[in-house]
Design a protein that fits this description.
The protein has 221 residues and is mostly helical. It has helices at 2-7, 21-43, 53-72, 78-112, 121-145, 154-176, 179-182, 191-208. The relative contact order is 0.17. Its cofactor is heme b.
Length: 221
């Protein structure tokens, strides 16, 4: 029975609502809003350049990507799952578009500045994230929109999605600690608010995880 549900993830499943689902979503969105505000506050303080488009679009990417995951987490009924999948696809489509624009901006900036590419840990992880993101999108399209037999791999798409989220946020946190961002903050103490944003996002996303969607059945006492 569990295997049948995994092959047909858009059909009704066991109820998965928890008391603080709405509060956890608020936590995620507050964290994303704070993160975006911190990055934009730096961009507002420096002259506009080709490089400026990189942190702008990559911030847009990480916000949309995380929101797209949170949207689909606690769905349980058939209608919720269909609606959640549609929104997930739209938001993640916008996220990958933002990521491509952000990577294009930094690549072009390196070219016109005659600098080497992918020399830092942030840059190397960023390249890995983009390649991972492309494969994740292809994987999701195959699982969600091809044959019914492909639905059995849905849980693996979820697991790799969470893995990508962790690596993407690690890359983002390295980025906001780069000299360009750190040296242009209104005051040094603002860096601590990035930790606040990250904690809010981790708490919200973690609470909304449903292990049953990974094929793990948790026995309740």
């Amino acid at each position: 029975m569990a295997g049948q549900q995994e092959q047909m993830p858009l059909l009704p499943d066991i109820p998965s609502r928890r008391p603080f689902d709405a509060l956890s979503m608020l936590s995620v969105r507050l964290g994303l809003l704070l993160f975006a505000a911190l990055v934009l506050s730096v961009l507002a303080r420096v002259p506009l350049s080709v490089f400026s488009y990189h942190p702008f679009f990559m911030t847009l990417f990480i916000v949309l990507f995380t929101e797209g995951i949170a949207l689909l987490q606690p769905t349980s009924t058939a209608i919720e799952k269909q609606r959640g999948l549609r929104r997930h696809a739209i938001v993640q489509g916008a996220a990958i578009t933002a990521a491509i624009l952000g990577v294009s901006a930094i690549f072009y900036n390196k070219v016109i500045s005659n600098k080497d590419h992918f020399t830092s840990a942030h840059g190397q992880l960023g390249l890995f994230v983009i390649l991972f993101l492309i494969s994740q999108v292809v994987f999701g399209l195959l699982v969600g929109y091809t044959t019914p037999a492909a639905k059995r791999y849905w849980k693996y798409h979820r697991i790799t999605g969470y893995t990508l989220t962790i690596i993407a946020w690690l890359t983002a946190e390295l980025g906001v600690r780069a000299d360009y961002v750190y040296n242009n903050m209104a005051f040094e103490g603002l860096i601590w608010f990035h930790w606040v944003a990250l904690i809010l996002i981790i708490l919200g996303i973690s609470y909304r995880v449903r292990l049953s969607k990974w094929g793990i059945r948790v026995t309740q006492a």
